[in-house]
Write a structure and sequence with these properties.
This is HPr kinase/phosphorylase. Belongs to the HPrK/P family. It comes from Cystobacter ferrugineus. GO terms for molecular function: ATP binding; magnesium ion binding; phosphorelay sensor kinase activity; protein serine/threonine kinase activity; protein serine/threonine/tyrosine kinase activity. The protein has about 325 residues and is α/β, with parallel strands linked by helices. It has 2 domains: about 5-135, HprK N-terminal domain-like (Udp-n-acetylmuramoylalanyl-d-glutamate--2,6- Diaminopimelate Ligase, Chain: A, domain 1, 3-Layer(aba) Sandwich), CATH 3.40.1390; about 140-290, P-loop containing nucleotide triphosphate hydrolases (Rossmann fold, 3-Layer(aba) Sandwich), CATH 3.40.50. About 35% of the residues lie in helices and about 30% in strands. The protein is built from 9 helices and 17 strands. β16 and β17 (about 260-270) form a beta hairpin. α3 runs parallel beside α4 (about 100-110). The protein is elongated and about 105 Å long. It starts with a strand and ends with a helix.
Length: about 325
């Protein structure tokens, strides 16, 4: 199961969580393994049956106000009992000053206490988005990802087969580069996988004989994009005259990427084949499939009907004769 350290919440800049550490620095190494957020609610009264471990606990105005109605001794008893559970961390929202008993109990339990000026609803929405991004399954692939007619096409193949040269030709035709050489892939939600360029080499491409070029500088910001959903994988293979390649395309093939099955096409490469045009056509064909039009299957169905009708007519003629 994927998990992140509590300290990564403090390090975030993209989701504007605006967290500051109040107490419990020892708890920064605790792990969060769920994007679900919990408000303790009735757990503050001692009913902890539905308290989930390793989740972020949010104390809003209601929770803090309730604690302040209790005596200091009772606050300590409630919080000590609550923090016996293996919680991830505690966040106080709305910029509220945490009660002293809460800070002391977190420090005693080695549980990180943080504060944010955001309202509870806004913080929960933003921290869930952060955790969903951080906890999703991810990996890296050696290939090229390019946006062709709005379709995220991942080009795979052994080194030197021409992936980067094909991508460069596609960029010159107006398509957009996402990543070259190293593609970082992440499953964002069920059945959807996104690819992005590695931060070190983003927008750069290696062309043998030229070296490293910067696509964004050469062709402008419209020639690149930061992230794209992968909708089609094209595996480039050297042409083998002894291998049988799919000539109809009736049966769909898939490649599993971080748990998501993505449509796969295996395309042989040999001199004289216009690979750029083939990939553009493959992207257009994928768009048709997504809209419910499977050209190969429709052709096969028409062919089967024509054969069946021909057999029927032949049988009738034989009966007449």
């Amino acid at each position: 199961m994927n998990s992140i350290r509590v300290s990564q919440l403090l390090e975030d800049r993209e989701y504007d969580l605006q967290l500051t550490l109040v107490a419990g620095e020892r708890g920064l190494q605790r792990r969060i393994n769920s994007s679900r957020i919990q408000k303790p609610g009735l757990a503050l009264t001692g009913f902890t049956e539905h308290l989930h471990p390793q989740r972020v606990q949010v104390f809003g105005n209601t929770e803090v106000s309730y604690l302040r109605t209790l005596s200091l001794e009772r606050q300590r008893e409630v919080l000590d009992s609550l923090f016996q559970e293996e919680l991830a961390c505690v966040v106080v929202t709305k910029g509220i000053d945490p009660p002293q008993a809460l800070a002391e109990a977190c420090e005693k339990a080695g549980l990180t206490l943080m504060r944010t000026p955001l309202l509870s609803s806004a913080f929960i929405q933003q921290v869930q988005a952060f955790l969903e991004e951080s906890l999703t399954e991810s990996s890296s692939l050696h290939g090229v990802l390019i946006d062709v007619f709005g379709v995220g096409v991942l080009l795979l193949g052994k080194s030197g087969i021409g992936k980067s040269e094909i991508a460069l030709d596609l960029v010159m035709r107006g398509h957009r580069l996402v990543a070259d050489d190293i593609v970082d892939v992440t499953r964002r939600r069920q059945g959807v996988v996104y690819g992005t360029g590695n931060a070190v080499i983003r927008h750069h491409m290696e062309i043998r004989g030229l070296g490293i070029i910067n696509i964004k500088d050469l062709f402008g910001v419209a020639a690149v994009r930061e992230r794209k959903m992968i909708e089609l994988v094209i595996e480039l293979q050297e042409w083998d005259p002894h291998q049988e390649y799919d000539r109809l395309g009736v049966e769909d093939r898939f490649m599993n990427i971080v748990g998501v099955d993505v449509p796969l096409s295996v395309v042989p490469v040999r001199p004289g084949r216009n690979m750029t045009t083939i990939i553009e056509v493959a992207a257009r064909n994928q768009l048709l499939k997504q809209r419910g039009h499977h050209s190969a299957r429709e052709f096969a169905e028409r062919l089967n009907r024509a054969i069946a009708e021909g057999v029927t007519r032949r049988a009738r003629r034989e009966e007449v004769e």
